[in-house]
UniProtKB/TrEMBL annotation:
Keywords: Membrane, Transmembrane, Transmembrane helix. The keyword Transmembrane helix applies. The chain crosses the membrane at residues 12-32, 38-62, 74-93, 113-133, 145-165. It comes from the Bacteria. This is Rod shape-determining protein MreD.
Length: 168
């Protein structure tokens, strides 16, 4: 089996299990709920099939929804960021994205941070809006998005650092 496929299967299962077992039980001060499972969408190979990414993003969100009893909010948020991902990559990496020369692990820290931040904050804003589903709670939604997003970005960067393979 292709190592890329194996790596993505392991990443998918690992992130869903860690999200369900550990991070779904964190609710610090009512605002901080980390969702590092979206790292799967962030790290999905750039040159691969876009339809496959959308399908796997739906399965990722649905898996978390099934164990969180959240009624499809995670699935909708994951599919949305998977759909927006090519435009975000294009706007951050420019011509390198068009030639499939982008490697997130080898990108400059600023570009990597911006890319992860845009995806995380988009995901969280949609997720928390769907959770509240009320425009009168906009301050609560924005606070929760900001604090949970910052913690999720920190966790994603930590995971990237811990699990990156150093090649010479």
């Amino acid at each position: 089996m292709n190592t890329s496929i194996t790596r993505n299967i392991i990443r998918f299962v690992f992130l869903v299990l860690v999200q369900i077992a550990i991070f779904n039980h964190i609710n610090f001060l009512g605002y901080i709920n980390p969702y590092p499972y979206i790292l799967f969408i962030v790290l999905f190979p750039i040159g691969d099939n876009r339809g496959l990414l959308l399908f796997l993003s739906f399965l990722l969100g649905l898996s978390v929804d099934m164990f969180s009893n959240s009624g499809g909010m995670h699935a909708a948020s994951c599919v949305t960021i998977a759909f927006l991902r090519p435009w975000i990559l294009q706007s951050i990496f420019g011509i390198a994205y068009e030639y499939n020369a982008v490697k997130i692990s080898k990108a400059a820290f600023g570009e990597r941070l911006l890319y992860i931040s845009i995806l995380v904050f988009t995901h969280h804003l949609l997720l928390f809006f769907l959770e509240s589903f009320n425009f009168s709670d906009i301050i609560y939604i924005l606070k929760k998005t900001l604090f949970s997003g910052a913690f999720t970005i920190l966790l994603c960067l930590l995971f990237l650092t811990l699990f990156s393979v150093k090649r010479k």
